[in-house]
Amino acid sequence: MKHSSQVLRKLAKKYGLSTKKRDNVAMYIEDLAGVLQTNLTTTKQRYTHGRQRIQNSLFCQLAIFSANRPSALLKLRYGDIAVNLLRDPSGGPHRILIEFTCEFTKKYLGAKDA
Amino acid sequence: MRVHEEVSRRERCVSLTWGLFSSTRCPLILAESTTYIEARNTFVLPEIIFDPSLILSPHVALLGLIFADNAFLAPSLTSAERISELDIPPGYEQLPLRLKPEMADIPVFRKSIRTPYGWEISPNQPLPYTTLLKWMKRLGVLTGFPQITRPYCLRYGAGNAFNQSGAYHAVPLLQPRPYPQCGMLIVD
After folding, report:
1. Are A32 and A60 part of one and the same domain?
2. Confidence band (pLDDT; 50, 70, 90) for B5?
3. Is residue A57 part of a domain?
4. For the sheet containing A95-101, what is the strand order?
5. What is the rounded radius of gyration, in angstroms, for the C-alpha atoms of chain B?
6. From CA B82, how far away is CA B84, in angstroms rounded?
7. Is residue A17 situated within a structural domain?
8. 3-state secondary structure string across A44-102
């Protein structure tokens, strides 16, 4: 491990790479729409199983709505999901309402919101 | 981000969701959402019906995964069409669609495993973060972002949106190059 970090330092010096901390780049809904579109239409991104493409898409959507830590969201279980059919008071078809709870959010000095 | 009152944070969350889904919303869902404000870490996803695109609708993907896993308790619920055939009994406002109790501990996001018959989805192992990171980096490159996209970028974006006084103002930081399929997609 020590050896590899030395090599990295040497390479960084040789090629004049930055040693600054990486910026926390934020992604917004327009960016996400582009990524999702690419995910569903591209043939250049291959997955080991077709389900993974949908899982990736769903993960991105849930992550941007809930602002949860990715690792907390990956632990989402079926027990944390509730699906309800609601009556629309203004008529029309019934609405499907999905709720999900993240139980694995980081907790330090008491419960912390995601 | 620090929000002094939990309610305030929840309201922001709700209003963010509403900001995202711009078209007609049924008032019932707002009323329903506010009753869940006390519940911590519970997120309500209203259904998108009249938006020009369903690409941002988690319902499509989430219901798809639930159907693929056959996770609804009612054996007749095997497709979205079957849900639309359901009716709420008179006098009731909602109909809970229960999931199988034995699937309660199964993760929604699961990893692939190699079997003698090819790749299959593991029955109970969660998807590792490293796999997701690899996918998102690749998708960012394919979409044409100059920066590296990571799952945490979504969290930062949502966090910034929460900080902006409850209203969602889109300020794209990543500058995508035009990508050809985008013409059909409209996001308000």
Report:
1. yes
2. very low
3. yes
4. B42-45, A95-101, A81-86, B94-97
5. 19
6. 5
7. no
8. CCCCCCHHHHHHHHHHHHHHHHHCCCHHHHHCCEHHHEEEEEECCCCCCCCEEEEEEEC
- Confidence class of residue A58 from pLDDT cuts 50, 70 and 90? very high
Over the stretch B91-132, which tens digit does the pLDDT of each residue have?
888 899 999 999 999 999 999 999 998 999 999 899 999 999
Number of domains into which chain A is organized: 2
Residue of B49, B64, B126 with shortest CB distance to A54: B64
Of B71, B95, B132, the CB nearest to A85: B95
Q: Do B42 and A86 touch (CB under 8 A)?
A: no
Quote the CA–CA distance of B137 and B187 in Å, as a whole number: 23
The string of pLDDT tens digits covering residues B16-69 is 444 444 333 433 344 344 444 434 577 888 777 777 788 888 888 999 999 999
B41 phi/psi in degrees, rounded to 5 = 60, 20
Do A60 and A87 lie in a common domain? no
Q: Which of A89, A29, A71 is nearest to B58 (CA)?
A: A29
In a domain, A16, yes or no: no
For chain A, say whether B95 makes contact (Cβ under 8 Å).
yes
* Residue-number span of the structural domain to which A86 is assigned: 76-105
Tokens of B41: 């870490």
Mutate which of B57, B127, B153 to test chain A, going by most A C-beta atoms within 10 A? B153
Whether A40 and chain B come into contact, CB under 8 Å, resolves to: yes
pTM: 0.71
Q: Cβ of B55 and A54 within 8 Å? A: no
Whether residue A67 and residue B158 make contact (CB cut-off 8 A), yes or no, is yes
ipTM score above 0.85: no
